[in-house]
Specification:
mainly alpha; 2 helices; transmembrane helix; ion transport; ATP synthase subunit c
Length: about 80
């Protein structure tokens, strides 16, 4: 019979790790969105107002992903 060797043991609540991993996506999305809005505003300054409106809609949608990530552990058993 082979002995089972434990290389690493993780203790504690894994929901925190899950939320940390779930928050990476929205963070990357916000960075890309902000960068593209700044780039678009620099290329066409007359479109700055329209780009900002679209940016706020995008930020709202991205933040919903983060909120779903933080609320999901409360709904899962």
């Amino acid at each position: 019979m082979a002995d089972v060797t434990t290389l690493a043991e993780i203790t504690g609540n894994m929901n925190t790790v899950g939320y940390g991993l779930a928050a990476i996506g929205p963070a990357i999305g916000l960075g890309i969105l902000m960068g593209k809005v700044v780039e678009g505003t620099a290329r066409q300054p007359e479109m700055a107002g329209r780009l900002q409106g679209i940016m706020w809609i995008g930020i709202g949608l991205i933040e919903v992903l983060a909120l779903i990530g933080i609320a999901t552990p409360f709904f899962l058993p």
